[in-house]
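Lab notebook page, bench 4
Experiment: in silico fold of construct C2
Operator: M.H.
Input chain length: 85 residues
Purpose: comparison with the prior construct
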Amino acid sequence: MPARSLEVGSADMQAARTIGILRAEQSFSQWQLAGRVTAHGHPISYTMLSRIERAQRGCDADGLVVIAEALPVSPPMLPQRPTAT
């Protein structure tokens, strides 16, 4: 049975924006960030990361934790509105 995409909720939509902003601020491409996430033990393709950033796919808690580690930021920061740096 194929894996089903996670539904997108309001926290996913905010996390999507925050991930995209933080990734761009650190000058990572989606491909580079996907590689960093995979290196942290959570295999993810850049296509899946792109879908997460565009809020076309939700991300489970484990995925958010590893994406936060790869950026590196605190996991609770992702579903929050980013602040200016």
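Observations: The CA atoms of residues 16 and 52 lie 6 Å apart. The mean pLDDT is 87.
Next step: discuss at group meeting.
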